[in-house]
Amino acid sequence: MKIGIVRFPGSNCDQDCYRAVDEGIGAEAVYLWHKSHDLEGCHAILLPGGFSYGDHLRAGAIARFSPIMREVIAFARDGGPVLGICNGFQILCEAGLLPGALVRNDSLRFRSHPVRVRVERTDTPFTSKYDDGDVLRMPIAHGEGQYVADQRVIDALEGERRVIFRYVDELGQPAEEANPNGSVRNIAGICDEGRRVVGLMPHPERVVSKLLGTDGLGVFHSLIEFLQATGGTAKQVAEAGDGPGTEAAEAAEASTP
Amino acid sequence: MRFEIEIRVTPREGIVDPEGQTIGQALGNLGYSGVHHVKAGRLVRFELDADDADEAKSSVDRMCEELIANPVIERYEVQIASPETASP
User: Fold this and answer.
1) Is A160 a residue of the active site?
2) Does residue B43 contact residue B6 with C-beta atoms inside 8 Å?
3) Residues of chain B numbered 3-22 and touching chain A (CB < 8 Å)
4) N or C: which end of chain B has fewer CB within 10 A?
5) Could you read off the pLDDT of A117-169 as tens digits, one per residue?
6) Which of A13, A86, A93, A191 is catalytic?
7) Of B15, B19, B72, which is closest to A108 when you measure between CB atoms?
8) What's the CATH superfamily of A2-248?
9) B88: in domain
10) Could you tell me the pTM of the whole model?
11) Alpha-carbon span A171 to A22, nearest angstrom
12) Structural domain spans, chain A
């Protein structure tokens, strides 16, 4: 199973993501350049944190038009798992793969410190290794992490249980003091309707070692378990299932006028 | 024809505007009383070649919807200065 980590100009958590996959869980990781049109057969895509394109205009607004994003959007529509962390979450929202938007923290300050988040749902490719209600310690590091959306969207997210992570206090409650950025309903992470595209502001890839904590490892272990169970997207399973047959089909297709 | 385009992007009604709020607070702290509802936004200005004002307007609207504003959180206003009114 191969995990692709997209590198935009200004990404700065790409190496952490690589290590989380490579050293953290011993899976294959590859970097994907933002100008590429090829996902190189990756079975899942990570959009790392950082300041893609200097956060100009709005965070994630320019990255969303990178050549690779066309492929990522097609991959997601095909049911491929995509995880956006921090700036990656902002990009997923700008690209329309996730609803809502992330605006300036209500404190107007860049917040860089550990937070607690509660796992609200475990039947996603990125949370299956956790238990419902688990409280994780992860760092945040963002200036624009305040999740906002229309009331209609919020109601739909809550109604369909698409809030995946919520900021909570030491008692596991979504208290106002536990909310680092003013996000509506203490939302720290959400998923799309198909539950394959997940975005979150905290950084699971920074807590995958004994030294710094291991609460984030579950995200990556969950992904591998999901990929091993499904074998990738339907298209990838079809292609992997019958190599020569696929070649023959391609040859037949190529010879068709 | 070349048109001068000015786009003002501001937070949509109901969307929190912490920057505007902070400016308002700071003005209060400086002793400027009576300041209410401060909104902070972005100004984008450029020149655009188009056949006429209608074409320029529809083109700029598409630019705003696609890139310059995020309709989820922002609204935009466009001002187009025609060649007659624009400085050479």
Assistant:
1) no
2) yes
3) 11, 15-16, 18-19, 22
4) C
5) 999 999 999 999 999 999 999 999 999 999 999 999 999 999 999 999 999 99
6) A86
7) B19
8) Class I glutamine amidotransferase (GATase) domain (3.40.50.880)
9) no
10) 0.88
11) 34
12) 2-248
Nearest Cβ partner for A100 among B18, B19, B72: B72
> For chain B, what is the domain count?
1
Answer whether residue B49 is part of any domain: yes
Is residue A90 within 8 A of residue A55, CB to CB? The reply is no
Identify the weakest region by mean pLDDT among A52-61, A72-81, A83-92, A215-224: A52-61
Question: Per the domain annotation, does B87 fall within a domain?
Answer: no
Selection from A253, A242, A231, A251 nearest residue A81 by Cα? A231
User: How many angstroms separate the Cα of B34 from the Cα of each of A179, A182, B14, B40?
Assistant: 31, 27, 22, 17
- Structural tokens at position A49: 């944190």
Chain A residues closer than 8 Å to B72 by CB: 93, 99-101, 148-150
Q: Does A105 touch chain B (CB under 8 A)?
A: yes
Look up residue A78 and give its DSSP letter. T
Domain span at B43:
2-81
Nearest Cβ partner for A106 among B18, B70, B72:
B18
Least confident piece of the model among A41-55, A78-92, B7-21? B7-21
